[in-house]
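Example 3.
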Amino acid sequence: MTQNCCETSSNIMILACSGGSSVGQLSNQAAVELAQEGFGKMFCLAGIGGQLSGFVQSAKDVPVMVVIDGCSVGCGRAILKQANVQLTHYLVLTDEGIEKNKNFNLEQADIDRVKEAVKRTVNGNPPVDSWPTETGCACGSGR
Amino acid sequence: MEIKVLGPGCSKCKQTETIVREAVAESGVAANVEKVTDVMKIAGYGVFGTPAVIIDGEVKCVGKIPKKEEVLSWIKK
């Protein structure tokens, strides 16, 4: 889970609700693929929900995060609120027109759609101003 | 007081350790400062990045160099 601070990939924190429905699992699979493609790094929403200080403080200190909730119940957002973590970027898959059901046979087309929506959400909305300016790798390599 | 500075050894991790040690010396608080460089051990603390500072088991900052004033406020509580 811990990144090497001198790695070259993005410091965007990706938190997926990973819930027990099609859209929950879509959020998870999209997060996995985005991390594999270097868009950001997956992090444990469960650790934040468990109020473990390493996870909560990491979420508070990261400059850019995106929370992917499958549906409007908004479990991911609620977990961050409980932990007093400020949300920077947020996406609800059912708001993107994706149906919530119990079909766990995910379609690659839907996964790709979610990935594009995540990228659009992050790239189209700069993070709020209150985040620290000295962030991310912090290894002194200039990245 | 037990203070751990997590970081594999890059310049900002070293800077963080220096700041923490300076703050401890300045405060006069009895504290043991340990630098943790083993990536697997760092992973066990659940942090997203480094440097990170842990005081008595509580993670205080992640992925950035803390200011000395911040460290002082953490250790004086």
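Residues 22 and 105 of chain A are 8 Å apart (CA to CA). Chain A has five helices and four strands.
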